[in-house]
Amino acid sequence: MLGPVILAASRSDKMRRFVSAAPGTKQVVARFIAGESVNDVVPIVQDLAARGLEVTLDVVGEDITTVEQSHAARDAYLELIGRLKELGLGARAEMSVKLSMFGQSLENGHELALANVRPVVTAAAEIGTTVTLDAEDHTTLDSMFAIHEELRKDFPQTGCVIQAYLFRTEEDARRLAANGSRVRIVKGAYKEPAEVAIQDKPEIDKAYVRIMKILMEGEGYPMIGSHDPRLIAVGQELARRAGRKLDEYEFQMLYGIRSEEQNRLAAEGHRMRVYTAYGTDWYGYFMRRLAEKPANLLFFVRSILTKG
User: Of 152, 184, 271, 289, which one is the catalytic site residue?
Assistant: First the structure.
């Protein structure tokens, strides 16, 4: 039951200050966050690519409150794309974006987020890569899917994320699979009410398998976002049954988690993409990683006690 408590803490300014000031925080954050700037993350992308891994890059910082901040987020991604172009890494690295960071929650947020994300998607296409729209809490999803549909008119490779714990997701998966979308499936990392989301972990896993099956049997490109060995094995079997080749789907895992498994899957010929976050506003992203797995929280607590 720690997960909901940690997710609540992710929205607390008081907890943000406490965690940021804790002596062991920097060490633990470095496990999940690749750095604070483009200069920090570029060597990591180069290293991952050299090991046969692909990357999706997330500039963290969805908690914005002004239009100016949304423009700064757009510009941060454009800077990143410029660096990837210089280094010839466009074929190995895509971008993941949270539309809240592009102004989705502000006044006229849907139009603002679309206006901000479009030049990022355009610039990504120009260097041979693409963008995936991350899923956030359930209140934002209709806007996200509408923006995804609009962007795909000109950039059909634009991806999106669906979350297995939401009751709506099987229907979303059928629609997206039918229209040939790139779709990342994850379990879900936001605190959602029982009216909209499955609360029981085994039932979430069952929903995840059902949704994987829909995606594998569809016309799109499934991206399996999971560290769970059982779900990875099921994903491989579902892909085999659907007659998919190894380059017709991929696995995705977070930077800093199960690196050996990432290398193993890549060595077997699977497309393996590492979700790599960087930036200074790391708190919300970091707390969701703690909520997802109790061992991450224990690692954090031990680090605080050791350094304190």
Answer: 184
111's tokens: 């139009």
87-98: burial string, b at 16+ Cβ within 10 Å, e else: eebbebbbbbbb
Instruction: Say which residues have a Cβ less than 8 Å from residue 305's Cβ, sequence separation at least 6.
Output: 24
Catalytic residue among 58, 92, 118, 134: 134
Decide if 134 is catalytic.
yes
Paired tokens of 74: 């757009």
Structure tokens at 193: 């009410």
Say which DSSP state 37 is in. S
pLDDT digit string (tens) for 20-32? Answer: 555 555 666 667 7
pTM attached to this predicted model: 0.86
